[in-house]
Structures are given as C-alpha cells and as structure tokens.
Amino acid sequence: MNCIIQGIQCIAPAHLNHLMALTEASGIEQSAEHAYRLLNARPHADIAAFCYEHQLDYGFVRPDQKLSDFGLVVMDMDSTLISIECIDEIADMFHIKPQVAAITEAAMRGEIDFCESLRRRVALLAGLEESALQRVYDERLQLNRGAVTMLDKLKRNGVKIMLVSGGFVFFTDRLKQRLDLDYARANTLEIVNGKLTGNLLGPILDAQGKADSLVCIRDELGLRPEQVIAMGDGANDLKMMAQAGVSIAYHAKPVVLAQASYALNFAGLDGLVNLFSN
C-alpha cells in the first residue's frame, strides 16, 4: 500500500522522515502542494497518534487506485461542501440561532432522530421572511477550503458529482448551478405569501433518503459500489457512506470517523482527490 500524508501547510521534513521510518516505506513522492505519497508503506500502531498530534491526515491506498477509477462522488452540503449549517444561519436571521444550533449538533452526533430534529428546527422558523434565505446564501455561505480544486479534478477525470443534503433545495439548487454539479437532492421549505410556514413539503430527505439517492444514481450510471465515493460529517451521512466503496469523514463527528474508510481532519476538500493518483 501507499500511505498518503496531507497537511494544511508545508509538512516538516522531520515528520515525513519519521513516518517513512514507521511505515518502512521504500520511497516518497510529493503528489500535491501539501501532500506526499509514501511508497510501499506498512501500517503501524503509532501512525494515527503521530499524525493527529502534528495536524496531519493519512490514508493507506492501493498503488494502482486512480481517481478515474471512480464514476461518482456523493457529498453532504452543510459543514462538508460549505462551511456553515444553513438552518443555523437562517435561524440567526430570526435571532434564535442558539436554540436551533443546539438541535443541529445533537442530530449530527446521532443523539436525536434526524427527521424529528429537522421538523423541530423548521417549526421554529415559522413567520420568517423568504428573503432571509437569499441573505444567508449571499452573505454567509462559503465553500470549504479546497472545494474548487476538488471539483475541477473530479470533472477532469470524468467523475460525476452529486450533492445530497438534509438541508434545503433553496441552497442545493443554487450550488448545483453555480458549481456545475451533476445532481442535487434536498428538502423543500414551505413558503406562503413570502414567509416560511414552519413546515416542509414532501417526504423528508433523511439518512435513508440520502442512501437511496446514492443508490438510485449509482444504478442509473451502471456503477458498482467500489466506483463510488461518499463524503460527509454527521450521523445522518452514515447510511449513505455505507453504500459507497470508499467513504470519507470530512472534519466529522466521532461516530462518523469510526466508520469511514478515510478521515480528513485537517486537510481541505482537495484532500479527497489527493488520496488517489490522477
């Protein structure tokens, strides 16, 4: 296996040398600005603790595994593709962000059923002007670091991109158009006379809905599970990630870290594409 080492800035030569010794690697290649490939590396019990201490991410990858081997990447939106939780920022426009954010956090940790948590949060938004959604998009929504690089490399390698969110169509549709994504799925807020009613339209896209969306597009494209990558940060992403051959926990909650193929705790979204040769 090759061991991919990534950081948020230049990696100290001493750290690379130590990791080479731990893994008994036969050589080293720089694969991106802050990413290196340790060749013919072996796992070692001390790697995880050393990397975490020095704010490095690592992953063992087959030498022959290329980005072009994949046909589909499915990713969460809030706190994964983008840096915010949209519903928390919408709530801030209504001066109830702490109440809503507390429910969001509990849901992402898996302590509250997602559907219940979403209904509770949306109900608190009843009466908010629709224009608040556009303000959140214009003023607060930002892509996470490395997003543009990741998306560009995926597209150059012929990989389809799907955004699937327990959040809202208002944001996923705009991001789909802006970033030229292939697919987007999310929930729809009910709006009457220019104001949020506190209700949702149609079935809630929850953890199972995310998984079903992945399987639907995967089958439509004629792909095998091992040709799909899924990435997320919260408990409601786990069923989706289980349907993909490769799962990536992005700056994720412990429950997600425990079940993912790879973890990106420090690197940006471009860390996904740095794992594989292209």
Q: Can you describe what's shown?
A:
Keywords: Amino-acid biosynthesis, Hydrolase, Magnesium, Metal-binding, Serine biosynthesis. This is Phosphoserine phosphatase. Its cofactor is Mg(2+). Its EC number is 3.1.3.3. This protein is of the alpha/beta class and about 280 residues long. It has helices at about 15-25, 45-55, 85-95, 95-110, 115-125, 130-140, 145-155, 170-180, 205-220, 240, 255, 270-275; strands at about 1-5, 25-30, 35-40, 55-60, 70-75, 160-170, 185-190, 195-200, 230, 245-250, 260-265. It has 2 domains: about 1-65, Alpha-Beta Plaits, CATH 3.30.70; about 65-278, HAD superfamily/HAD-like (Rossmann fold, 3-Layer(aba) Sandwich), CATH 3.40.50.1000. The protein has 12 helices and 11 strands. Strands 8-7-6-5-9-10-11 form a 7-stranded mixed β-sheet, with helices on both faces.
